[in-house]
């Protein structure tokens, strides 16, 4: 006898609950479940997710953290809409190959990978690992030449205007990630303007 399926689940989780793949695909074809990504499903009767793409990617690669422009969007630090879900994995970790949703993978240093990590509720009761606003701003400053200096500086300015901004934490993370100089200079310019 099969056990109930959680709102979002993988093919492997369905099998562990006694559901044969043939039955799972019948459920998909009948509209009882929706396929979010290859091997990741969501019950049709589950609450609508706020971040369905992040939910799908998190189930495909649990070790990853949502980062960069995707994390900026989660924290309302940009109006940019990334073309791909941006995730980070620790260096040495095999990067996932995900066709849908389109995904861009960054490899971050293992020693600093967990710094500033947090979670966001992608769907009710379903957290997804994401870098917090301070870490995301620091990452954007580190990767500003690759991802766009205007996006990075805009995110920094937007962050500094927030009531919950913690510039000290931002500087501590920048120091730990070896970008203290550029972040401090950008904060000085943003504060002067």
How are the SSEs ordered, and which strands pair?
Layout: E1 8-10, H1 11-16, H2 21-29, E2 33-37, E3 40-43, H3 52-60, E4 65-66, H4 68-74, E5 85-90, E6 103-108, E7 117-123, E8 126-131, H5 133-142, H6 144-147, H7 149-161, H8 167-176, H9 180-192
Description:
The protein folds into two domains: 36 residues, no CATH class; 141 residues, no CATH class. The protein is 42% helix and 20% strand. The chain has nine helices and eight strands. The mean pLDDT is 90. This is Type IV toxin-antitoxin system AbiEi family antitoxin domain-containing protein. It comes from Actinokineospora guangxiensis.
For the largest beta-sheet, the strand count, sense and barrel status come to:
3 strands, antiparallel
Segments where pLDDT lies below 50 for 5+ residues? Answer: none
**Beta-strand content:** 15-25%
Enumerate how many helices there are, as a single number.
9
Termini separation comes to 65 Å
Order of helices and strands: EHHEEHEHEEEEHHHHH
Strand order of the largest sheet: 1-3-2
Record field, number of beta strands = 8
Helix content: 40-55%
Mean pLDDT: 90
Integer count of domains: 2
Overall outline:
elongated
Question: From the alpha-carbon coordinates, what is the Rg to the nearest angstrom?
Answer: 19 Å
| SSE-based structural type | alpha+beta
In short:
The protein has 193 residues and is an alpha+beta fold.
What keyword list fits this structure?
193 residues, alpha+beta, 2 domains, three-stranded antiparallel sheet, three-stranded mixed sheet, 9 helices, 8 strands, 42% helix
